[in-house]
Specification:
The chain is mainly beta. Helices cover 8% and strands 34% of the residues. The longest helix is centred in the C-terminal third of the chain and has 13 residues. Its cofactor is Zn(2+).
Length: 217
Amino acid sequence: MAERSQTAPEAGYDIGNDDAIGGNVSKYLVLPSGYCGQPKKGHLIFDACFESGNLGRVDQVSEFEYDLFIRPDTCNPRFRVWFNFTVENVKESQRVIFNIVNFSKTKSLYRDGMAPMVKSTSRPKWQRLPPKNVYYYRCPDHRKNYVMSFAFCFDREEDIYQFAYCYPYTYTRFQHYLDGLQKRNMDYFFREQLGQSVQQRQLDLLTITSPAGRWSW
């Protein structure tokens, strides 16, 4: 399990440096600066190694605050919008502030009341965070780039919490949906494989017409 702790002066925030962000964090334990000993409840563990996950780097700014760096799109390093990660090993009533510090968009619905999604092990239904706890602003500490910050209070120690930009819709879920349509043998739906992506995923070509005997306008 990786361990890492950095304070703001040590972190060397350079969100234009892609070398500072590799793959997704995997069961990434963040310990307070100077701490020695076994991890305790409240020493957060971040993970994004799952389908649709995205979190490339975590810097601890203070006891309660964390700067989070998201990975860019696969084929375009200029676009950095999506995030989806889990947090565990929390302490009851632990309050945190998470800052997504390397968004590539200057305009966002987060400025107009949209809020990130959250769910947990015991509450598996996605819910939006209260908009009053979400802030989207230009930050002088990060090259005047736009940052989205949100405050959150963990309330159940045994839960694993998951945060996302909006409702995740994975490739696997989409494939299951197409499989279900194909099994219905509808005469106006035809599915064939067009090719494969650079990650060797199936690319589907869907042909949708009108049911027999009906006009399509």
